[in-house]
Amino acid sequence: MKKFLVLAISVFLGFTFWGSGMAKLYFEHKFFGWIGPVWLIDELRPYGLGLYGQFIAISQIVIGYCLVTTRYKLLGAIMMLPLIGNILVVTISLEWRGTPFVLAFLMLLNLILLWQYRDYFRPLIDETATTNQIKKRSPKTAKGHLVWLSGLALQLFSILVSYYNWPIALGVVVVGIILSVLSFRADKAKIDDYAQNN
């Protein structure tokens, strides 16, 4: 049950931020996401912060994708802290009501996710902590990393495709997600091959 909860939080947070970033950059904002605003870049442009808005959108895509595909839950959760902080400052500066409360809830979920990986943080605080205090988790391989990265690259490529053909762009997104989820299988296959040859 605990493992399922961690997975559910990771997927929910990932979908929330990945979808939000994609919606900001997709042609005519034709991408599904439940938080916004999709017009953030246009809202920031008059202040000379259009590029900053694009940076937030790309950060949301990469960080959210780490979480929604669940391969890099810890990395995504760590990077989520400054991301939510940045978005919070923007929303307070622009005097948006309600958004800080939504962000507080998302931050709470993120902290729950980080708590599950607390054994990784002890060496950052106490340099004398040994590596055997870190719980064993399933190994990841270079092949799996490359498979996952190709899925992420397809997400970013789909943004360009959306300006020409939305259904094809959506197809590229789906292929990318499938590829990234298959990265776990790529790990397993590589580990099994190594075990057989040794």
UniProtKB/TrEMBL annotation:
UniProt keyword list: Membrane, Transmembrane, Transmembrane helix
Top-level lineage group: Bacteria
Residues passing through the membrane, by range: 47-67, 74-94, 100-117, 145-162, 168-186
Name of protein: DoxX family protein
